[in-house]
Amino acid sequence: MLQISVEDSEIGPGEAHRWHLVPLTGAEGPAPRRMTGYNQAKHFTVAQYAQSVDDPIRSYVAASFELTGQVDLDALAAALLHLVQRHEVLRAIYQPLAGDLGCEVLTPDEVALKHVYGGPLETGAQVTRHLQEAFQEVDTLSWPLITMGAVVRPGSTTVWFSCDHLVTDGLSSAIAINDIATAYRNLTSEAEPAPQAAPATAPGAGSYLEFSRTQRRANRAMRADDARLDHWRAFCERNGGLFPRFPLDLGVRPGQLYAPVASTERLLSAQQVEEFGTACRELGGRLSMGLLASVALALRELGGPAVYRGLMPFNERGRGDYAESMGWFINTLPIEFPVGPQAGLGDVLAEAQDAYAQVQAHAAVHFVKAWKLLAPAEYASLRYWPYAVNFFSYIDCRRLPGADRHAAQQARMHVWVSGCNGILHWLHRTDDGLFVNTIHADTPEAGNVNRALLDGFARVLAEPLST
Predict the structure, then answer these.
(1) Euclidean distance between CA atoms 325 and 321, whole angstroms
(2) What's the pLDDT score for residue 111?
(3) Measured between alpha carbons, how far is residue 132 from residues 48, 126, 204, 209 in Å?
(4) Which of 45, 107, 140, 332 lies deepest, with the highest CB count within 10 Å?
């Protein structure tokens, strides 16, 4: 699954169709109030405050994929409804509490889809504009938090959906694509159709809200002096705060957001990334840590510090009931390790590997909980990261649900933010190699630093391939 902006996706013209999620009238009413996740509560509170000061911050996590042949619109509508019925986080109606967030959940039988024909889109530019506008319709403070549609052509159809971050993360995009495509395939074949009203507690689709309740209860008694926060506390002392700064000058002013510049490029071919992974294993480390070590070396070569400090996301789903569940199952944790002036890839990889083991040992503490306890003033006042933050993300998309069909389906994820004050890199591996999706602030300095960093990163990656 390639992560790429919708502007670069080259989706062909066709007939526009939309399906709007609506509650059914006459229902008995939503289920009792449920607990939401740490990420959700913070995200919603930030959106509320931004709205109150007329400074909205918008974002979406969207995806698209292709169906071949003449589409069956009724079957597609049933497949899209199946997605919503299967994942209760998409049926939840979120309600602010005092400094927190709760929700009530519509049952699978209490939601339906309303079809709207949007007319012809005659050029690729019209398709792009249509999708840009549709993707941005999701709003943290309004229900529903998912919008769905398709661009239909005689021989193929592009299916798309867009979610507010409140109910999704990047991995959820692959899960949703697989759910929709599998249900559609079953509904249009001789096989037994997939259940159109599968409850969110069905095998492989555990409840994100139940996960959140369990996680919150485990940390309910935590206070600022709790020993479980020692890792975070020590990091903050060495770092000078909760958020690790991006170590190079990007030409951004404090407290200001800039228009985002997005791009996606391939860094290594499929064969090259396999060879780099082999080199990392021979050095005693994992591919992911080899990539992190390479980023640290590239930063050092550009004048970065002798200690790498950054934040990295961790998937909390595990391999059990939540493995194929939609939701915001992401914790964000700090990692730091030395990058000596004469150190090579093997040296830094070993340090990164050890640092990662330390991070894993403290993964039970959620970033938002640590933020609230250790930096309460920042927690209450910040609407976005206070400055350009150092951030590392890598995912092997070949291991995601339905990955064996990603290439044939042209599966794509589209991430967008309305404003940016730094550089974000999402490294991801597909069957075609190693790619990086970048969003950076639209300043000359940020553009130059991003180019130099990616070029330096590519050079470090190439060194073990030439030996």
Answers:
(1) 8
(2) 95
(3) 23, 10, 31, 29
(4) 140
Cα separation, 390 vs 367, whole angstroms: 15
Q: Mind listing the pLDDT tens digit for each residue in 378-410? A: 887 777 888 999 999 999 999 999 999 999 999
> Does residue 256 have a pLDDT over 60?
yes
Q: How many CB atoms lie within 10 A of CB 366?
A: 23
Amino acid at 403: A
Does residue 212 carry a pLDDT above 60? yes
Which CATH code is given to the segment(s) 2-217? Answer: 3.30.559.10
Mean pLDDT of the chain: 92
Write down the domain spans for the chain. 2-217, 226-465
Strand 412-417 to strand 59-68: parallel, antiparallel, or no bridges (unpaired)? antiparallel
Six token digits for residue 295: 């980023």
220 CB-contact burial (10 Å; exposed 0-12 / middle 13-18 / buried 19+): exposed
Task: Give the strand pairing for 393-396 and 423-430.
Answer: parallel
Evaluate the omega torsion of the peptide bond into residue 120 and state whether it is cis, within 30 degrees of 0: no
> Could you tell me where the DSSP H helices lie in 386-443?
406-409
Could you tell me how many residues make up the chain? 467
Question: CA-to-CA distance for 421 and 253, rounded, in angstroms?
Answer: 8
Is the domain 226-465 a CATH 3.30.559.30 member?
yes
Task: Characterize 63-98 residue by residue with b for buried, 16 or more Cβ atoms within 10 angstroms of its Cβ, and e for exposed.
Answer: bbbbbeeebebebbbbbbbbbbbbbbbbbbebeeee
Check pLDDT > 60 for residue 23: yes
366, 38 Cβ separation under 8 angstroms: yes
Distance between CA 143 and CA 148 in Å, rounded?
14
pLDDT computed for residue 28 by the predictor: 62
- Smallest CA-to-CA distance from 262 within 426, 409, 116, 140 is with 426
Identical fold for domains 2-217 and 226-465, yes or no, is yes
